Amino acid sequence: MFRPAVCIVLFLLFSAIHVSAQSETPIISGGIQYASTTAGGATVFQPIISPVVVVPIGQRFLIESRATFDEFISRENGSSGPYHAKTFSSVDYLQLDYVVNSHLTIVAGQFLTPFNIYNERIAPVWIHNLADSPLIAGIGTRTSGSSDGGMVRGVAVAHKNWQLDYVAYFSALVNASQFGAGRTAGGRVSVFVPDRRLEVGMSYQRFLQHEHLNSWGSYVVWQPNSVPLDLRAEYAHTTGGQGYWIEGAYRFSRFRGSDSWLGRLQAIGRVQQFYRGTPAPDDALPGADTQKVDFGLNYYLPHNLRLNASYGRQFSSLGNVNIWNLQITYRFLFPLLPGGSK
Amino acid sequence: MKMPVLYRILLIVLLLISVGVAAQNSTSQPQASTPAPPAAKSPATESEQGEKRFQSQCGRCHTLPEDLSPREAKAVVRQMRVRANLTAEDERLILKYLAP
């Protein structure tokens, strides 16, 4: 199952861990999830392990990597026939970070494509509120969702009441099985207002292989100070189509605190629309105009466990479908070396 | 048929264990993961400033992991400095909160 590239990655990681052992504690974190999805009567069971290895080297360098190992267990004919299992593994990112100062961090290697926020910040299994990715998740992240090359990022301007952040990157075309990426260039700028807990940003990407395509998007993240509510929204546009999603998550922490039985509960709602443009090969977008609404409940258990149940209804000219999801997720974090937690 | 039945049973067992753990924890340690409130009103300490920055910067995407040791926190915050575009001051204050 382990290909040579993965073996090399593991060797380099363990070498770096050994080197960094004298400075700071390398850690392994991530999530383990068991998910059950029923869409249009067909049920898929999906165990997932997604470990993240973080190895600080000195005060300025950091190696970080995330891999995903998952299995799809489904019936041969959708809703009938014997069950079959398919196993997948992928390296989501493997990057070397050099923190120059607050204004500049240089990243080299394979990194998550920083288009809008879902792919880079919300997609991990221990973070996302709803199991299904947004309809527009393929815009700006096509091919693998990862980029191979270089990236610079940081805080361009840090004011007392706001800060301006930026990301710029270039990715080469790589066809290696575990490190696949498209030839792209792009960037993102955002303004964050800490006191208002409001972030607004814009992304742009130029796809530079085969057809040259432009993708651009914008997003908003807002957590009102007076209400335990998370609001997130994204809009994205490319030749293949355009769309948006808006998600709200309300945690009942006002009722006897966030650790009470009711305060651990979070209600989620999401609406999204996608309008098909000119189809492009492998653009990972819905085949027709699609609308979707999702409702979900999160229950945050002690010891970093979370239960999630959600229902979604998708409307499309290709067929309407009900989608039910049930997930249990364990978020783990351990030192990689003995005694590292002291 | 055997494998899906096993997975269904495994899922039900995990759910029951999780609910049991939650019930036990909510009765014995109702405020286990909530940081202690400040003793008196005073100018915000660095730890309090760090908590505020954690809520505004890190809370945009995720909650605070439980049982985070000081040394683990250093690696986590270093990673988040890159991922969330934290400034050096953000990193210092959040570490004051997570690893006092």
Q: How much is the radius of gyration of chain A in Å? A: 21 Å
**Biggest interface, and residues per chain?**
A-B, 65 and 50 residues
Name the overall outline of chain B.
Answer: globular
Low-confidence stretches of chain B: 17-41
> Taking all residues together, what is the mean pLDDT of chain A?
90
What is the strand arrangement across the widest sheet of chain A?
1-2-3-4-5-6-7-8-9-10-11-12-13-14-15-16
Shape category of chain A: globular
Detailed description of the structure:
The complex is a heterodimer of chains A (342) and B (100). Chain A is mainly beta. Chain A has a single domain, classed as Porin. In chain A, 6% of the residues lie in helices and 57% in strands. In chain A, strands 1-2-3-4-5-6-7-8-9-10-11-12-13-14-15-16 form a 16-stranded antiparallel beta barrel. Chain B has a domain at 44-100. The longest helix of chain B is centred in the first third of the chain and has 27 residues, at 2-28. The chains are: A mainly beta (342), B mainly alpha (100). Chains A and B meet through strand 1, strand 2, strand 3, strand 4 and helix 2 of A and helix 1, helix 2 and helix 3 of B.
